[in-house]
Amino acid sequence: MGHRDGTVGRLAHGVRASLRNNGQAYGYSVSITVAGALLNTEAKVPGSVHLIYFALGAVAAFSLLQALASAGFRKPLEPEPSTVTALGVSLSVVSVGSSVLTAWGCARFIGGVVAWPVASFAVSVVYLTVAGLELALAERAQAASRHGGEVEERTAEEEAEHHDDPAQE
């Protein structure tokens, strides 16, 4: 393998790792940022205490969903194969769109200080739930494909190789 092939291969692996590790967080970041901007435009509130309420609403949603998903923090949250994550994240227009629409509705129809924690809570719940559905659809699509098991097995082997050999990172 020449220098160019090695560099390009490492770059491709790095991009894949970045996409795998950041895809869901990226969609959530876009959603919660747009939610704050929509609230700032629609539910104008002087001062800054509403920003603290906004943060607390989002944290409360994550904590609640984490507790539910882990059966009261007793079960681990298992990772998805990267091929499932890639397909699920490619569907994120639905999770981002629905959570942004939720934020707009809270800003437009609730308004005031109350809209801030309600919107961040609702956006977090909607995004995480719809993103979970996207991953479930991706997993189902991979399992239904002719070569789904083969792709999952090959992906697991490649991930194990890269995990075992830090030089390939």
Describe the overall structure:
The protein is mostly helical. The chain has six helices and no strands. α1 runs antiparallel to α5. The longest helix is centred in the first third of the chain and has 40 residues. It is elongated.
Please give a handful of descriptors for the protein shown.
169 residues, mainly alpha, 6 helices, 81% helix, disordered C terminus
Approximate helicity band: over 70%
Strand fraction:
under 5%
Tell me how many strands there are: 0
Strand-pairing-aware structural class: mainly alpha
Order of helices and strands: HHHHHH
Distance between the termini: 16 Å
The profile of the biggest β sheet is: none
**Contiguous helical run count:** 6
Radius of gyration: 19 Å
Instruction: Provide the low-confidence segments as ranges.
Output: 165-169
Shape label? elongated
Mean pLDDT over the full residue set:
82
Topology summary:
Elements lengths: L2 H40 L6 H21 L12 H9 L2 H17 L2 H33 L3 H17 L5
Helix pairs in contact: 1-3, 1-4, 1-5, 2-5, 3-5, 4-5, 5-6
How would you briefly describe this protein structure?
81% of the residues lie in helices and 0% in strands. The chain has helices at residues 3-42, 49-69, 82-90, 93-109, 112-144, 148-164.
